[in-house]
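Progress against Task 2.4 (sequence-to-structure conversion) is shown through the following example record, which the project officer requested during the mid-term review.
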Amino acid sequence: MASVVNMDIAALRSFVLAENLGSFSAAALALHCSQSALSLRIKKLEEQLGASLFHRNYHNLRLTPNGNLLLPEAISVLDAHDKMVGTALQKDKKEIIRLGLPEDLTVGFFQNFLANQIQFVNQIELTMHLCRDLVQLICDDKLDIAVVNAMPDYQGGETLTSRELKWVCSPEFNYQPDQPIPLALHPQGCIYREHTFKVLNALGIPYRIVFSAQGAVSVQAAVIAGMGLSVIAEGSIPNELQIVPDEWNLPALGQTDIRIFQKDRGSPTLANFAQILRQQLPKVM
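C-alpha cells generated for the chain above:
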C-alpha cells in the first residue's frame, strides 16, 4: 500500500497565492509571513511531491509542467478546506431573527410570549418603530418578521387577532363634555392618532392635542397625570388607567388588527419561529 502524503494547507495556499500574485514576496505580504518562511513552505511541498513547481528567476516566476498540473487541484483542495472550516465555525452559531414590533406590543411580547419561548431568547434582534415604518423595513429586507397594529381597511399582512380600541383616562380625570376633548397621542404617523382624528372629524366633535410623544410610556404618563384622554387597544391598557365611562358618550373607535408581515418563508429556524408566533401570540395579546 502506497504511503499517504499529508499536504500542508498553508503550503498549498502559499503555492496558489504565489502563482496568482507572480512573486514570493507579494504572496508573503498577503499571508503576513516572511518571504523566507513562504519559500520554505513551497520547498517542503516540492520535496513531498518529488517535483519542482516553479521556474525561479529574478524577473519572472513561472509554473513548471508539474506546477500547472497541481494548480487546479490545489485550488479545489483549498476551496473544500475553507468550506469545511466555515461549516464547522457556523455549526454552533445561532441564526439571528430580525423582528420588528411597535412599542405597545413589546411588554406583552416579552412577558407573555418570549418568556415561554426561551429557546429563541438569544436569537432575536428586536427593532421598535411605528407600524408603517416596520412594514417598510420588511420591504427593504431589513427585517425578517414584523408584527404591527393595523386598521381593518389597511391592505397587507396576515391578521393574527383583533382588539377593540378604547378611550382611556386616569380615574381622577375631570371630563368636561362642553369643552374640546383633550388628547394625549403619539405623533403624526401613528395609526391610532390618524384613526381617532378621522372618527372625531366625521362626527364634528372638537378636540385638541395637549401632549404628543413618540414613546408609549410618556403618553401614558401624561394621561395618568390627568392631562387628557388617549386611545389604547384592549389588552395593552396599564393598570393605572381605565376605560372611560359609557355615560360620557364618546364615539366607538372600532377594532384594530395585529398582523404579521414576512417577506418570505426563510430558513427552517425562521419558519419555525414564525409558526410559533402565529399560534401563540393571539393567545397572549
